[in-house]
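S1.2 Input.
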Amino acid sequence: MKYGNFLFSSESVTEGHPDKIADQISDSILDAALKDDPKSRVAIETFVTTGLVVVGGEMTTDTYIDIPLVVRNTVKEIGYDHSYKGFDYNTCGVISTIDRQSDDIAMGVDRDGAGDQGMMFGFACDETPEFMPLPITLAHQLTHRLTECRKKGLIEFLRPDGKSQVTINYKNWIPDSVDTVVISTQHDPLFDGDHTTATQLKKEHALIEKEILEKVIRPVLPENLVKGKYTTHINPTGRFVTGGPMGDTGLTGRKIIVDTYGGYARHGGGAFSGKDATKVDRSAAYMARYIAKNLVAAGFAQKLEIQLAYAIGVPEPVSIMAETFRTGKISGEEIVKLIRKHFDLTPSGIIKKLGLRKPVFKATAAYGHFGRDGFSWEKLDMVNKLHS
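S1.3 Output.
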């Protein structure tokens, strides 16, 4: 393999994937707390399985939250409204076991310290208009298109659970063409009866392949990246009727690579969903993305990764690192100086700059936290200031 020539793959999942159900429930509870008490401290985890949602964790807030109602409304909005789909918001059980934030943790947060230790990464590159790697961008667009086709009735047999995966052929570090697309989507059984024949299954699969190719894959893939034939795998097991929590358990924070850069950049390991902004796992990762995106947009590098690291209870990061992958116009050390000059990296500084006391988090819990309009950490409002 020639240096700089390689294949790279990233995946995404729909909002009906079990892990994403869990993420959306956790962030819906967080938003409900922040709506009436912006200083709520929340660290909520959700577990979903056949017919059951379990919500646990810690929360200190001055407001009341009807957790079963929040859970059911979230599941309903996703589209699980009947048991034949694998889950039903009306009949699923909801168990809640939540305690107050530990006094030992609160003691550090009260003095503007980080709510936990750890390292967080932010990344940006000039491969796409979103300043994101192309594989994860296309993977998200495919899962979003799947959901759009389902909710608008463009493909009548679709159910909420689904996945995508995109492999891009890079030449000299630049995306050149689409190599492989994988779509796995939950669907209605297209033939009635308990004993579907092999011939019927073959016809069912052929119809699903045709509809997904024509209405999901082709409308998403950029024409300039389709060079000759590319490989597609659509429901490669042959059938995907049993999905959602009936098909697999779901847990908050189990799709952290889907949430960020699709494996193209590093991840510190901390999940985002269900955590308020005093938890730097979330807020500092957002800030690192904001910094990296503005620096790339300002022309300081074509590809940039930022690492921030914190100690629990300590306001300032213990370290800042910048890696430009040999694309920088200035050195990593000089970029770190720019960061220290222009950005307040204390938890309170991040919260104030990005407006993270507001109920904005449920929208992040599917189709990625980065590369999407409407989030404060995606703004390019520091580009001119960075040159001053």
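S1.4 Remarks. The first helix runs from residue 18 to 36.
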